[in-house]
Amino acid sequence: AQTVTQSQPEMSVQEAETVTLSCTYDTSESDYYLFWYKQPPSRQMILVIRQEAYKQQNATENRFSVNFQKAAKSFSLKISDSQLGDAAMYFCAYRGGTSYGKLTFGQGTILTVHP
Amino acid sequence: SAVISQKPSRDICQRGTSLTIQCQVDSQVTMMFWYRQQPGQSLTLIATANQGSEATYESGFVIDKFPISRPNLTFSTLTVSNMSPEDSSIYLCSVLPGKNQPQHFGDGTRLSIL
Fold first, then answer.
1. pLDDT per position as a tens digit, A37-93
2. Does the CB of B25 have a partner CB in chain A at under 8 Å?
3. What residues of A are in contact with residue B110 (Cβ under 8 Å)?
4. Residue B43 contacts A, CB cutoff 8 Å
5. Which residues of chain B have pLDDT under 50?
6. Is B31 on the interface with A (CB under 8 A)?
7. Does A43 touch chain B (CB under 8 A)?
8. What are the E-state strand segments in A15-102?
9. Cβ atoms B94, B103 nearer than 8 A
10. How far apart are the CA of B45 and the nearest CA of chain A, in angstroms?
């Protein structure tokens, strides 16, 4: 079974600084997708960024980028120029290519942004 | 992306009662899912809601406790039956519009059982 591990229960960053959230996963599949979701106190799950395993290039969405290391099964999220609105719980998630959409989530990392 | 409406947004229920949560999508979607998020925890998949057939449940979840309906490609319901305080959680509906697309989530239902 696939597992997703986020080893940082909590992280903090100063506004305008950069922070990196860690995620590792375990799978025997070669075709899969990885995601970072953000969950603010409003509890809505918001997609931050996605990465297809077959793509070597790291995904980027504005201030958010990932460092995808397939051999190491690592998928970290970098947030640049942190803003107060980035404060939330961040979940790393895995979806296998043949899992018919099922997502496996990590434990989550609470990100605090200090003004 | 798909717009998902989930109702109710929150409820407080008595022990032993049942509650049905609705999930409505503004477009036809291939797959719909129901997740549970216990307080301070991550999300766990309860089941995949299959259109026109019985839902597919994950280990630890059973149909008698969490009956699910999906009458068409835009609507699903999850019932939490015979509730106990341990069922106090956020329940989230999610949809997969297509095979190579990301899942999108409803706003969730915060359920508290007294």
1. 999 987 789 999 999 999 989 999 999 999 999 999 999 999 999 999 999 999 999
2. no
3. 43
4. yes
5. none
6. yes
7. yes
8. 19-21, 24-26, 32-39, 46-52, 60-61, 64-69, 74-79, 88-96
9. yes
10. 7
